[in-house]
Amino acid sequence: MWKGFIGKLSGKAPKSGGGGGGGWGSPPSKSPTSYGANGGQWDPMRSSPPLPVVAGAEGDTREDVFLRKVTVCCVLFDFSTDRGRDSPERERKRQVLMSLVDCVGAAEEPLTEAMISACVGMFAINLFRVFPPKVRPGAGGAAEADEDDPFFDPSWYHLQVVYELLLRFVMSPVVDVKVARKFVSEDDHHNGIAELLEVFGSVISGFAKPLKEEHKLFLCKALIPLHKPKAVGMYLPQLTYCITQFIDKEPKLSGTVIRGLLKYWPVTNSQKEMMFLGELEEVLELTEMPEFQKCMVPLFRRVAHCLHSSHFQVAERALYLWNNEHLFNLISRNHQVILPIIYPALERNARLHWNQSVLNVTMNVRKMFFDMDQKLLLACQKKFQEEEEKQAESEERRRLIWEHLERNAAFHPVTGDISFSVVTKSAPLVAPTMT
Question: What pTM does this model have?
Answer without folding.
Answer: 0.64
